[in-house]
Amino acid sequence: MRLLHVDSSITSGNSVSRQLTARLTRRYATEAFDVSVVYRDLARSPLHHLSPAYLQAQFAEPGQHSAPLEEDLSVSSEVLEEFLAADTVVVGAPMYNFTIPSQLKAWIDRLAVAGKTFRYTETGSVGLVEGKKLFIVSTRGGFYGPETACLMTLWSVRVRMRCPVRGGHPGPDGRGRIAKPLVVKGPG
């Protein structure tokens, strides 16, 4: 079995999301048989964000690009293949300034490839990736323990910044939470 472990926190030693993804990966690897782990650190080796040149290069013949663009296309292909080859994916997704890190967004952009991870139909897009387990370890705030500071959520963004938040997903059980969450305890 192949497990892809992706971290995106820009804080290394103090990162709670990194601690939790490492703990979850270790736990999963010890409970499963014959696990190979591929690790990608998006903060230490960030992907380029999408650009007009990158999008145009997707439809051009190989060899018609600059060397840096060829390298970017090669890394993108590698990232996509890592994801497609994995049976299980563990993603560290801390929340900075009300959203995920831009490094993680750049990774997600490289996975959204028509014909590989989804296809277009007359009624809309349809996912092509099935049978994977995906664990998203989301952290926010910065202080964890008995006297935890107020944690930021999309709903608190709405209240504090008076920004409308629409389309909040109620969760798999319809009550705003995951029906049977796997809890991996962090520090504190």
UniProtKB/TrEMBL annotation:
Catalytic activity reported: N,N-dimethyl-1,4-phenylenediamine + anthranilate + 2 NAD(+) = 2-(4-dimethylaminophenyl)diazenylbenzoate + 2 NADH + 2 H(+); 2 a quinone + NADH + H(+) = 2 a 1,4-benzosemiquinone + NAD(+)
Cofactor note: Binds 1 FMN per subunit.
Gene3D superfamilies in UniProt: 3.40.50.360
Record-listed FMN binding positions: 9, 15-17, 95-98, 139-142
This protein's record includes keyword RNA-binding: no
Known EC number: 1.6.5.-, 1.7.1.17
Alphabetical list of InterPro entries matching this protein: Flavodoxin_fold (IPR003680), Flavoprotein-like_sf (IPR029039), FMN-dep_NADH:Q_OxRdtase_AzoR1 (IPR050104), NADH:quinone_OxRdtase_FMN_depd (IPR023048)
Cofactor: FMN
Molecular function GO labels: electron transfer activity; FMN binding; oxidoreductase activity, acting on NAD(P)H as acceptor; oxidoreductase activity, acting on NAD(P)H, quinone or similar compound as acceptor
Keyword entries, A-Z: Flavoprotein, FMN, NAD, Oxidoreductase
EC class (word): oxidoreductase
Domain Flavodoxin-like fold: residue ranges: 1-144
Function: Also exhibits azoreductase activity. Catalyzes the reductive cleavage of the azo bond in aromatic azo compounds to the corresponding amines. Quinone reductase that provides resistance to thiol-specific stress caused by electrophilic quinones.
Alphabetized HAMAP family for the sequence: Azoreductase_type1
Protein family membership: Belongs to the azoreductase type 1 family.
Subunit-level organization: Homodimer.
Protein name per its UniProtKB record: FMN dependent NADH:quinone oxidoreductase
Protein source organism: Sphingobium fluviale
Gene behind the chain: azoR
